[in-house]
Amino acid sequence: MLHHARAADGDDPTKVFTDGKKPTDIRLGAPKTLNDYFPFVVPKTKEAWEARRKQLREQLLVATGLWPLPEKTPLNAVVHGKIDRGEYTIEKVYFASTPGHYVCGNLYRPANGKSDEKRPGVLFAHGHWADGRFHDAGEKAAKASVDGGGEPDLDRGRFFMQALPATLAKLGFVVFQYDMLGYADSTAIPHGAGFRDAEAELRLQSQMGLQTWNSVRALDFLAALPDVDPRRLGMTGASGGGTQTFMLGAIDDRLACAFPAVMVSTAMQGGCVCENCSLLRVNTGNVEIAALFAPKPMAFSCANDWTKDFVRKGYPELERLYKLYDAADRVDAKEWLRYGHQYNVHAREFMYFWMRNYLLGKEEKVKEPAFKPVPPKELSVFDAAHPRPKDELDAKALRAAMSKASDAQMAKLVPTDAASLKEFRRVVGTALRAMVNSDKPKGILLSAWTGRFPTDRGVIARVGPPDSGHTYKTAELTTKLPSRMTSIPQEADYWHGDLVPFHQVESPKDTGQWVVWLHPAGNSSLYEKGKLVAPAQALVDKGLSLFAIDAFGTGELRSDKFTAVDKGYSGYTFGYNRSLPAQRVHDTLTAISFIRRTYINEKRVLGGNEEDGLPVHLVGWGEFGPIAVLAKALAGDAVAKTAADLNGFKFEDIKDPADPMLLPGAVKYGGLGAFLALCAPGEVLVHNHKDTGTGQLSRAAYEAAGAANKLTRSADKLDPAKVVEWLVK
């Protein structure tokens, strides 16, 4: 490894922020949380939205552990215990969404009509009300609801969880009301438990992901019923059930109509573990996620909770998006601010109207009729004749089975030829983009150079020591991206608040080649006692110019904030913020884009087209070796050669969710070996690979690309002289 003794600030030529100035990078502040502001900025064109829609949908699937989709194993559904309620019936259902894990619920069906009639189907996901579909608010709460005008009578005040599917069934819908994890009959895995450790993060296993998969399989069950029309499927749910509603609408094209109640807003995004997971809302929020359903009909109800401002913040942007599709009549939102967090009769009647209009073609208001509830115990799916399945798994056993199934999927992706390599890149490359949540920046803002000597271009450069034979410049970059996370109007061009302090050393021989220098000590690693360190000087002597960065967490971007991982559940942190490795890869991609735009065909042209620029080289020292590999995997042909010290690192060895090298999803998609495989057919040199497990998969990819000679692996400790020799040959 390259060693470096940091110079005192006054003698450090790489410092960007002098005279008491501090970097303004927003990442140096507190991490974003679920209680922050999440506006949705609508793209200017439908085409731009379609591109964003594809990208975001992939992000959601990766985040929930559903990229690629797991195998849809037989449901083996058991439907029994029909209860006749006159105008409708209730049946008891359980099925295996994946072997050993059971989804339970009640199936409500109209009692009249022709036996061969195909009816619209509706999924109903309850939220965080006690006991879920068994919920009984009690006489006191029911009376308060009636007295306050929220419910017409005590039966509906106590048992609105039954009133909703019962009414839909009376109106001609087949309704499946199913349990969230840990509620009613689905108690094998307690709600909020079982998915909080580092292994779960590295494999993207979460309650949110499992619950979303349960929703997909619940829709499979409903759509396959002989009396259901699979072209007319809707979904509703309130609070956490609202989260499941807009999530399923975002990832599953089969839903034709949706009504998420009291959930979608620019404010609080979901307070439970079952509504959060790593990667889910990085650079997005619930309004944009709900927007993925456009232009299909979607309506929302709001109350005096975190949704109270939705009609004025968030919903107008959704209307604007629907107008891009000439479908403004297919989105609506109403508010009842006199009531707290609820799904009372006013919101339910709005939902009935919405479902009837778009799934039955009957545009008329609905007044909810009175009903007689079933004692909750009688709705349970398990009894003496139908005991709990003997193969039901707890969280630990289920996660082991999920890992085995996922590993089997990944094993099938090992490249053997050009076609399989393309599929490997599609799956793993897409996953890595979602894990890093970064791509080539669409613009880069350059601050004024710092230093002492003005030039005729108005650029200030500091000239190196008289005997150094090179000049150097120091400044900061920030990226220009189409962010969804800003309150600036959509028409404006605006800048992210992330900065990349850099230090460049131009070789007097100027061969047009540049090396992005990544080091744990950042920019200052280029110097020792005022002179370039030996490998840096050797590269400059050979005509290669250097571009070092203070990637996030190094140099002038040192911070303890990135270690502030939520101690209860790291998904609360990484669900809204990039992990530290992802931040550093993002900064590296920014540097690569800047060099290619600024130094084009050996000419200094600030602000040029990146496509015209020459490829750059990457070198990652120490813990930045894996960062260099990840950056190369995403940068593709923009990087010519990559030299990386793997430093004996394995993602599989991480045991603490707060480990600074944790990258959510890394193990699921094959670890460092898979990301090295994505670099094929680029020229890559890796040192110190012993015990990293990178050999088999990376070699297979390079052989499939016909470039086996382009991957050089060495088990030896990093030798800077050999790195220089390899880069310049």
TrEMBL record:
It comes from Gemmata obscuriglobus. SUPFAM superfamilies: alpha/beta-Hydrolases (SSF53474). Gene3D superfamilies: alpha/beta hydrolase (3.40.50.1820). Residues 1-23 are annotated as: Disordered. This is Acetyl xylan esterase domain-containing protein.
